[in-house]
Amino acid sequence: MATILSVKNLTIKFGGLVAVEDFSVDVQEGELLAIIGPNGAGKTTVFNMLTGIYKPTSGSIEMDGKNLVGMRPHQFAAHGLARTFQNIRLFHNASVVDNIKMAYTLHSSEKFFPALMRTESVVEQEWELDMEVMRLLKIFNLDQQADLLSKNLPYGPQRKLEIVRAMMLKPKILLLDEPVAGMNVAEIDEIASLIAQIREKFKMTIILIEHHMNFVMPIADRIKVLDFGKTIAEGNPGDIQKNPKVIEAYLGGGYHAIA
Amino acid sequence: MTTFFQLLIYGLQLGSVYALLALGYTMVYGIVGMINFAHGDFLMIGALSTVFLAMAFMNTSSAALSAIQVITIILIAMIGTGLIGVLVEAIAYKPLRDRPRMTALITAVGVSMFLQNFPRALPFIGPNPRPFPRLFPLVQLNLGGVTITSTQLIMLGLSIILMVILYFIVNKTPLGAQMRAVSMDKDAALLMGININVIISLTFFIGAALASSSGIFYASIYPQVDVYMGSWLGTKSFIAAVLGGIGDIRGAMLGGFILGISEIFATSINSNLGYMIGFIVLILILLFKPAGLLGKFSIEKV
Amino acid sequence: MKFSKRFKSILPVIGLAALYGLIMLLKSMGIANNYHIQILMFAGVNIMMTLSLNVVNGFTGQFSIGHAGFMSLGAYGSAIITTLILKPSVIPASMEIPVFLLSLLVGGLVAAMVGYLIGLPTLKLKGDYLAIVTLAFGEIVRAGLRLIEPIGAARGMIGVPNYANLAWIFLFVALTLFFVRNIIYSRFGRAWIAIRDNEIAAEAMGIDSTRYKIISFTFSAFIAGVAGGLYAHVVSFIQPDTFSFVKSSDLLVFLYAGGSGSLTGSIVGALLLTSLPEALRFLASWRLVIYALVLVIVMLYSPKGITGGYELPFLRITRKDIYENRGKKISETPLQETKEGDV
Predict the structure, then answer these.
(1) Which residues on A lie below 8 Å from B302 (Cβ)?
(2) Is ipTM strictly over 0.90?
């Protein structure tokens, strides 16, 4: 396995407050890395740095031998980092199909003037894109809702759509920010099998943030635990479960007990 | 050098008009998050109602207005305009609070159109400009070649007093604390038991009353009143509020004076340049300080 | 199949031609007079302006409130060509139409270029701040035009040849609708809508928001420039003060009262609200009061505008259309499983 993302000493300060300190990780191709930790530990902040939404105060994010720090979010996406959001951020007034097509903008070769005239070749491209999107939706069982406005989808499918949309970017790494937040048991199982499917079918490398231990433990290859912005533990799920520091962080933080 | 100070005085007097008007924009923006494009028309209502009030008082006493009468007129005009502001908010803006911002903005354009054209259509007001009565004594003082009139001194003094009162209300009173709470977080304010509707109404009342006073002061320097006078003064004061940092009352005052002074100096070179300068200053400031001079951007939570 | 596809695509053209024929018929019968035609021409220009504004405000979710500035640049740009440089007295009559079209192109390009230049630094500003800068831009253009003596300064330009007639207006409105519709249903339109709905998500999905905003702004400015050019050749007399903030706010009213984000809304809004004040002329000075009331009531009770988000069939492109265009039926298109790593 090769390292495809190398993060070194990522630190970010807001005002005088250090939100994340010295976050380092080498992500291996094909692995599923989970980042866990109590509320406010800085997990989402790490994601925001890994996708260019926040610029770290110091540290580096290397992909393909290039440091991405300082680039804009869309450039992070172009380098193969696609994400979902904790508070769902779909394009609400667009249909399910269009939501996914929007994530194809980067790869589309449609040119402005032909698009203005809607030439035969543009129609052809639109047709091929539509079929590709429909195939993807079928894999994830969303093809029946294709023409629905995304805001009219129920909560569970909205989360799923966000993942499918990120897949349309054809990323190297998929970053999932609390993919099962607010879901019931059946829905959680569905997302777990969806993630398994993505790994199997697309050999996707995944980084995910989650509170839900029952969800994380069986699927993660490796876990990093954050508390107050610092990495307090790292290892395979079995080790993490036994680590006293982790138990302390969770119980001491008054957060729900580790399962 | 005398010219410089003379222009500075004109700049200050115009700046105080802008500042008073900009305060209303900035307060409404801070509390409700909308640009009230009809705000400038409150200035016109203040000036116009003063014309009629003065006429009424002069009929009864048939002599020049006494100081008490002037104060009464100003107070009636301010309170009356304030109430119109409350009414406008209740009828036109309140139902739109949870709608997209542009909806409220377009409604404000409609309200502004109404506030201008309704008096214009009334036979006893009409479209023609009318002279503004002299409210303040006119004594000229000469300070080393620089002329200051008593009108200028009185209006500058009054506007500074009004601004100090406002600053005191917002920062030192329980009412002000509630206003600040609503502007920071409406939901939290609601949980704290603050009556948001009352606070919003009060904000419109204060904003419109200040606009009314700025109208009276403006018409005291340029003694002509028509139904459209509020629209372009409003636009400029809005610019002043933005360049100072919209949502911040010190920003509105600062922006008002910067705009007034730069406009007077630019106008002394060319009148079109005078008109443009405010916009140019605005764009320059926003390019370097995107939230205005005293404004702060909050980081969007992702 | 082939024939019905062809027929469907030219149906709007036939409809438009029929509408034009009807108006001409009404005119020859004396029911419609030159005044009505004039109002219709203004409405056409306003439809173009509203569509232009719709691209930026309705589809890209940015707030331009100074669009009259672009219109004035187009009006002056094209009027300078036809009135000062290639004026009717120096060109043969046969060249009038080419010169007219050239002038419209120049008007559009001038506006587009300025749109691009001011978009570059300002589109980073968010929401209301962008709005106020566009307002400032419009007023700076107006005050600037008042300073330039060769184009009549504040007095304006008179004697612009009245090349534009109703047929030209019809043609340009139709072209604008065609182009705007096509671009909305392409990569570009989708990127704009993504930015409008959620800019952070759009960026995270690889959409370069600054670039697409600038494309939107420049495209919109071009349309506004051409519309301004047409306007100049309808009225023959242009003045900087015609293109004041009042004009910009009229356009905003057309857009939002008609329904933003809908092309049909722009047509209905511009057409209805251009003719309404004319229809209300019998009310004399009460007319603008009524107009203002109508506007406020529409905004209060019809949040999506008069059209409520409805789009005429030929102004949208559905997925079904795409498949039919390829001679396929959407329901019959096989959706075979993707091969591994295909996505």
Answers:
(1) 44, 48, 53, 85
(2) yes
Instruction: With beta carbons less than 8 A apart as the criterion, state whether B237 and B25 touch.
Output: yes
Q: How far is the alpha carbon of C62 from chain B, nearest alpha carbon, in Å?
A: 10
Q: Which residues of B touch A44 (CB under 8 A)?
A: 302
Residue B152 lies in a domain: yes
The count of structural domains within chain B is: 1
Q: Where are the domains of chain A?
A: 1-80+171-259, 94-168
Q: Would residue B156 count as lying in a domain?
A: yes
Question: Quick one: pLDDT band at residue C326, thresholds 50, 70, 90?
Answer: confident
Name the neighbours of A, counting chains with at least 3 Cβ pairs within 8 A. Answer: B, C
Q: Which chains neighbour C (Cβ–Cβ under 8 Å, 3 or more pairs)?
A: A, B
Q: Burial code of A40-64, b = ≥16 C-beta within 10 A, e = fewer? A: ebbbbbbbbbbbbbbebeebebbbe
List the CATH number of the domain containing B246: 1.10.3470
The rounded distance, in Å, linking the Cα atoms of C122 and B290 is 9
CB within 8 Å of chain B, chain C residues 50-89: 57, 63, 65
Q: Does domain A1-80+171-259 have CATH number 3.30.450.40?
A: no
Domain ranges of chain C: 5-242
Which residue of C193, C205, C317 is in closest CB contact with A77? C205
Angle, alpha carbons B217-B219-B220 (nearest 5°) = 60
- pLDDT value at position A251? 63
Q: What's phi and psi for C139, nearest 5 deg?
A: -75, -35
**Does B296 fall in a domain?**
no
pLDDT at C327 over 60: yes
Count helices and strands in chain A by DSSP H and E runs: 10, 10
Domain that holds residue B161: 2-288
